[in-house]
Automatic annotation (TrEMBL):
Residues 18-121 form the Pirin N-terminal domain. The lineage of its organism: Bacteria, Bacillati, Actinomycetota, Actinomycetes, Kitasatosporales. InterPro entries: Pirin, Pirin_N_dom, Quercetinase_C, RmlC-like_jellyroll, RmlC_Cupin_sf. This is Pirin family protein. It comes from Streptomyces nogalater. Belongs to the pirin family. Residues 1-22 are annotated as: Disordered.
Length: 219
Protein backbone atom coordinates (compact mmCIF):
# COMPACT_ATOMS: atom_id res chain seq x y z
CA UNK A 1 0.00 0.00 0.00
CA UNK A 2 1.25 3.48 -0.83
CA UNK A 3 -0.09 6.85 0.26
CA UNK A 4 0.66 10.10 -1.54
CA UNK A 5 -0.43 13.15 0.50
CA UNK A 6 -1.05 16.40 -1.38
CA UNK A 7 -1.49 19.56 0.70
CA UNK A 8 -4.02 22.31 0.08
CA UNK A 9 -1.21 24.80 -0.49
CA UNK A 10 0.16 22.69 -3.36
CA UNK A 11 -2.99 23.11 -5.46
CA UNK A 12 -2.76 25.14 -8.66
CA UNK A 13 -4.45 28.54 -8.38
CA UNK A 14 -6.88 29.35 -11.16
CA UNK A 15 -10.16 31.05 -11.92
CA UNK A 16 -10.64 34.78 -12.44
CA UNK A 17 -10.42 36.74 -9.16
CA UNK A 18 -11.63 39.97 -10.79
CA UNK A 19 -14.79 38.13 -11.89
CA UNK A 20 -15.31 36.66 -8.41
CA UNK A 21 -14.02 33.17 -9.29
CA UNK A 22 -11.33 31.50 -7.16
CA UNK A 23 -10.32 27.96 -8.18
CA UNK A 24 -7.83 25.51 -6.65
CA UNK A 25 -6.89 22.58 -8.92
CA UNK A 26 -5.60 19.26 -7.56
CA UNK A 27 -4.54 17.97 -10.99
CA UNK A 28 -2.90 19.39 -14.10
CA UNK A 29 -5.43 21.82 -15.54
CA UNK A 30 -5.46 24.41 -18.34
CA UNK A 31 -2.29 26.53 -18.30
CA UNK A 32 -1.04 24.65 -15.22
CA UNK A 33 0.29 21.65 -17.15
CA UNK A 34 2.08 19.01 -15.10
CA UNK A 35 2.76 15.74 -16.97
CA UNK A 36 3.36 13.97 -13.65
CA UNK A 37 -0.03 14.97 -12.24
CA UNK A 38 -2.57 14.26 -14.96
CA UNK A 39 -4.82 11.82 -13.12
CA UNK A 40 -5.26 9.28 -10.34
CA UNK A 41 -7.19 6.29 -11.60
CA UNK A 42 -10.33 7.58 -13.32
CA UNK A 43 -10.10 10.95 -11.51
CA UNK A 44 -8.73 13.76 -13.70
CA UNK A 45 -9.94 16.83 -11.78
CA UNK A 46 -10.82 17.77 -8.22
CA UNK A 47 -11.47 21.51 -8.26
CA UNK A 48 -12.30 23.64 -5.24
CA UNK A 49 -14.48 26.44 -6.59
CA UNK A 50 -15.40 29.63 -4.76
CA UNK A 51 -17.86 31.97 -6.49
CA UNK A 52 -18.85 35.40 -5.22
CA UNK A 53 -22.53 36.37 -5.48
CA UNK A 54 -23.36 36.93 -9.15
CA UNK A 55 -20.24 35.14 -10.40
CA UNK A 56 -20.16 31.99 -12.48
CA UNK A 57 -19.11 30.07 -15.55
CA UNK A 58 -20.92 30.98 -18.76
CA UNK A 59 -22.14 28.26 -21.10
CA UNK A 60 -19.32 25.88 -22.04
CA UNK A 61 -19.08 22.35 -23.48
CA UNK A 62 -18.06 19.00 -22.01
CA UNK A 63 -17.83 15.54 -23.54
CA UNK A 64 -16.74 12.06 -22.46
CA UNK A 65 -16.56 13.13 -18.82
CA UNK A 66 -18.46 12.16 -15.65
CA UNK A 67 -18.83 15.42 -13.68
CA UNK A 68 -19.72 15.10 -9.99
CA UNK A 69 -20.31 18.21 -7.86
CA UNK A 70 -20.70 18.50 -4.10
CA UNK A 71 -21.73 21.87 -2.62
CA UNK A 72 -20.04 22.89 0.63
CA UNK A 73 -21.93 26.14 1.26
CA UNK A 74 -24.20 28.45 -0.70
CA UNK A 75 -26.36 27.44 -3.66
CA UNK A 76 -25.24 26.51 -7.17
CA UNK A 77 -27.49 27.22 -10.17
CA UNK A 78 -27.03 24.68 -12.95
CA UNK A 79 -28.45 24.98 -16.47
CA UNK A 80 -27.63 22.69 -19.39
CA UNK A 81 -28.38 22.23 -23.06
CA UNK A 82 -31.10 19.66 -22.36
CA UNK A 83 -33.23 22.51 -20.96
CA UNK A 84 -32.75 21.50 -17.34
CA UNK A 85 -32.26 24.08 -14.57
CA UNK A 86 -31.63 23.06 -10.96
CA UNK A 87 -30.47 24.58 -7.69
CA UNK A 88 -27.87 22.53 -5.82
CA UNK A 89 -27.55 23.12 -2.08
CA UNK A 90 -25.09 22.12 0.66
CA UNK A 91 -24.56 18.37 0.83
CA UNK A 92 -26.33 17.67 -2.48
CA UNK A 93 -24.56 15.40 -4.97
CA UNK A 94 -24.95 16.46 -8.61
CA UNK A 95 -23.85 14.15 -11.43
CA UNK A 96 -23.74 15.28 -15.06
CA UNK A 97 -22.70 12.58 -17.50
CA UNK A 98 -21.46 14.58 -20.48
CA UNK A 99 -21.34 11.48 -22.75
CA UNK A 100 -21.14 12.48 -26.45
CA UNK A 101 -21.52 16.16 -25.58
CA UNK A 102 -23.42 18.65 -23.45
CA UNK A 103 -23.21 22.37 -22.67
CA UNK A 104 -23.93 23.87 -19.28
CA UNK A 105 -23.85 27.02 -17.14
CA UNK A 106 -22.84 27.16 -13.46
CA UNK A 107 -23.54 30.29 -11.44
CA UNK A 108 -23.94 31.72 -7.97
CA UNK A 109 -27.28 33.48 -8.29
CA UNK A 110 -27.69 33.71 -4.52
CA UNK A 111 -26.76 36.51 -2.06
CA UNK A 112 -24.06 34.54 -0.23
CA UNK A 113 -20.66 33.17 -1.29
CA UNK A 114 -20.70 29.72 -2.90
CA UNK A 115 -18.13 26.97 -2.35
CA UNK A 116 -18.25 23.62 -4.11
CA UNK A 117 -16.07 20.68 -5.10
CA UNK A 118 -16.22 19.55 -8.70
CA UNK A 119 -14.67 16.25 -9.70
CA UNK A 120 -14.19 14.90 -13.23
CA UNK A 121 -13.78 11.23 -14.08
CA UNK A 122 -13.07 9.55 -17.39
CA UNK A 123 -15.66 6.98 -18.51
CA UNK A 124 -14.61 3.49 -19.54
CA UNK A 125 -16.47 3.86 -22.84
CA UNK A 126 -16.85 7.14 -24.79
CA UNK A 127 -20.07 8.43 -26.32
CA UNK A 128 -23.64 7.83 -25.27
CA UNK A 129 -26.49 10.14 -24.28
CA UNK A 130 -25.97 12.85 -21.64
CA UNK A 131 -27.77 12.28 -18.33
CA UNK A 132 -28.28 14.15 -15.09
CA UNK A 133 -28.83 13.06 -11.47
CA UNK A 134 -29.32 15.12 -8.32
CA UNK A 135 -29.16 13.37 -4.95
CA UNK A 136 -30.51 15.56 -2.12
CA UNK A 137 -28.41 15.99 1.00
CA UNK A 138 -28.70 13.19 3.52
CA UNK A 139 -28.07 13.33 7.25
CA UNK A 140 -25.79 10.30 7.28
CA UNK A 141 -23.14 8.80 5.02
CA UNK A 142 -23.69 8.87 1.26
CA UNK A 143 -22.65 6.18 -1.20
CA UNK A 144 -23.02 7.26 -4.83
CA UNK A 145 -21.81 4.89 -7.59
CA UNK A 146 -20.60 6.12 -10.97
CA UNK A 147 -20.47 2.81 -12.85
CA UNK A 148 -19.47 4.43 -16.15
CA UNK A 149 -16.11 5.31 -14.54
CA UNK A 150 -15.78 2.26 -12.28
CA UNK A 151 -15.95 4.49 -9.21
CA UNK A 152 -18.02 5.10 -6.09
CA UNK A 153 -18.20 8.39 -4.16
CA UNK A 154 -18.47 8.11 -0.39
CA UNK A 155 -19.40 11.14 1.72
CA UNK A 156 -18.51 10.75 5.40
CA UNK A 157 -19.32 13.21 8.18
CA UNK A 158 -17.47 12.53 11.41
CA UNK A 159 -17.73 13.80 14.95
CA UNK A 160 -14.73 14.38 17.24
CA UNK A 161 -12.74 11.17 17.80
CA UNK A 162 -15.01 9.29 15.40
CA UNK A 163 -13.48 6.75 13.03
CA UNK A 164 -14.52 5.66 9.56
CA UNK A 165 -13.23 2.82 7.42
CA UNK A 166 -11.55 3.67 4.13
CA UNK A 167 -12.82 1.34 1.36
CA UNK A 168 -10.49 -1.51 0.47
CA UNK A 169 -9.83 -0.83 -3.20
CA UNK A 170 -7.04 -0.66 -5.79
CA UNK A 171 -7.23 3.14 -5.64
CA UNK A 172 -8.85 5.51 -3.14
CA UNK A 173 -8.77 9.31 -3.29
CA UNK A 174 -9.55 11.06 0.01
CA UNK A 175 -10.32 14.78 0.12
CA UNK A 176 -10.83 16.62 3.42
CA UNK A 177 -13.55 19.26 3.07
CA UNK A 178 -13.74 20.37 6.71
CA UNK A 179 -12.00 19.52 9.95
CA UNK A 180 -8.88 17.47 10.61
CA UNK A 181 -8.35 13.73 10.31
CA UNK A 182 -5.48 11.32 10.87
CA UNK A 183 -4.98 8.85 8.03
CA UNK A 184 -2.10 6.42 7.41
CA UNK A 185 0.10 8.30 9.89
CA UNK A 186 -0.55 11.74 8.37
CA UNK A 187 -2.61 14.64 9.71
CA UNK A 188 -4.89 16.03 6.99
CA UNK A 189 -6.68 19.37 7.16
CA UNK A 190 -9.13 21.25 4.93
CA UNK A 191 -8.17 21.00 1.26
CA UNK A 192 -5.62 18.25 1.86
CA UNK A 193 -5.94 14.99 -0.06
CA UNK A 194 -4.46 11.48 -0.01
CA UNK A 195 -4.03 9.25 -3.06
CA UNK A 196 -3.93 5.67 -1.79
CA UNK A 197 -2.92 2.69 -3.91
CA UNK A 198 -3.81 -0.78 -2.64
CA UNK A 199 -5.90 0.45 0.30
CA UNK A 200 -6.54 -2.27 2.87
CA UNK A 201 -7.68 -2.04 6.48
CA UNK A 202 -7.31 1.76 6.71
CA UNK A 203 -9.30 4.04 8.99
CA UNK A 204 -9.60 7.82 9.21
CA UNK A 205 -9.82 9.32 12.70
CA UNK A 206 -11.32 12.79 13.16
CA UNK A 207 -9.76 15.05 15.77
CA UNK A 208 -12.62 17.55 15.30
CA UNK A 209 -15.88 17.46 13.30
CA UNK A 210 -14.87 16.60 9.75
CA UNK A 211 -16.38 16.09 6.28
CA UNK A 212 -14.60 13.72 3.89
CA UNK A 213 -15.13 12.82 0.25
CA UNK A 214 -13.66 9.45 -0.73
CA UNK A 215 -13.47 8.03 -4.25
CA UNK A 216 -13.27 4.23 -4.38
CA UNK A 217 -11.93 3.17 -7.79
CA UNK A 218 -11.38 -0.12 -9.55
CA UNK A 219 -8.93 -0.60 -12.47
Amino acid sequence: MTTDVRRAGERYRGGDPQAGIDTRHAFSFGPHYDPDNLRFGALIACNEERLAPGAGFDEHPHSHTEIVTWVVEGELTHRDSTGRETRVGPGDVQHLSAAAGVRHVERNDGPAPLTFLQMWLTPREPGGTPSYTLVPAAGGPVRYPVPAAGAVLHVRRLGPRERTAVPDAPRVYVHVVRGTVRLAGAELGPGDAARITGAEGLEALASAPADLLLWEMTP
